[in-house]
Design goal:
2 domains, Spore Coat Polysaccharide Biosynthesis Protein SpsA, Chain A, about 30% helix, two-stranded antiparallel sheet, four-stranded mixed sheet, globular
Length: about 280
């Protein structure tokens, strides 16, 4: 989704499958939804679009991979029957140090209310939001069917940006399907806490000891994609940089991306930004 013909041509020989999803679910007012909404609705149907694989690992197009070990962690944590996924919780995240929302009306609570009503919002809204921008799930895990069922039911009533994530959170906390919650460095949200930078290892790391390397950097939200971050460096000093993939490669001393230059991708479009940064 979001790639022009030239970008699809560049990508095609570098991947096994290149799929443009249609609408996997019929729901009211579908014709009014943006084309990008198909990518959200398609998420519970990945085995349908990419059949024949053992485990499915999803990483959002606004996230990029710094260390391959994050992939290994996700796949191992998923096993055959668990959802491997990262909640939006960390000791560094600023949201945990703010004054509580009036009546507990967090974004998670509002999403539950929008999707399921007040009663379920009051019951589940106190739980942390689990971010489906990165997850791993075995093809035979029961979550696929449960996720698609819940999301389809919600879409008959309402359509909103976080619909697939809210449906998955419902499956986790209301239907209690098995899950492995991973640490925040497996899906780091710099909008909640800027990482630190280790100039010796040339890696982005957690801002607090023991300074675990960030596995996946997730620039969720338009502001994070355009923002210049001021990062504390281990050993002293600070550095200012964008955390977009191309700028991060430059800071880490990695050669520029060879073919699909950033200038060829329009701002706000979707593409696969991933690199093994071992």
């Amino acid at each position: 989704m979001g790639l022009d013909a030239g970008q699809r041509e560049w990508l095609s020989p570098r991947v096994t499958h290149l799929v443009r999803p249609g609408w996997d679910v019929d729901f009211p007012r579908r014709e009014r939804m943006p084309e990008s909404f198909k990518a959200q609705v398609a998420r519970p149907f990945l085995p349908r679009h990419f059949p024949g694989y053992e485990t499915y690992l999803w990483i959002d197009a606004d996230a990029w991979l710094q260390q391959w070990r994050a992939v290994d962690i996700y796949v191992a944590a998923a096993g055959r029957d668990r959802l491997a996924i990262t909640p939006e919780i960390d000791r560094a995240y600023k949201r945990h140090y703010k004054r509580p929302k009036l009546l507990g009306m967090t974004l998670a609570w509002k999403n539950y209310r929008h999707a399921f009503g007040w009663r379920i919002a009051d019951r589940l809204g106190r739980n942390p939001m689990v971010n489906c921008g990165a997850f791993a799930l075995h093809r035979e895990a029961p979550h696929w069917q449960a996720w698609s069922r819940v999301m389809t039911a919600v879409l008959q009533r309402t359509q909103f940006f976080f619909v697939e994530q809210t449906a998955l959170n419902y499956v986790i906390f209301a239907e209690r399907l098995p899950v492995n919650f991973l640490p925040a460095y497996c899906n780091w949200a710099p909008g909640d806490a800027a990482p630190a930078f280790d100039p010796e290892r040339r890696l982005f790391v957690e801002p607090y000891a023991p300074y675990e390397p960030i596995g996946i950097m997730h620039l969720a939200g338009r502001d994070q994609k355009e923002r210049v971050f001021r990062l504390q460096q281990l050993g002293g000093g600070a550095v200012e940089t964008s955390l977009r993939y191309s700028d991060s490669r430059a800071l880490c001393g990695i050669d520029a991306e060879p073919a699909m230059a950033a200038s060829r991708v329009k701002p706000g479009s979707s593409r696969r930004d991933a690199a093994g940064g071992n």
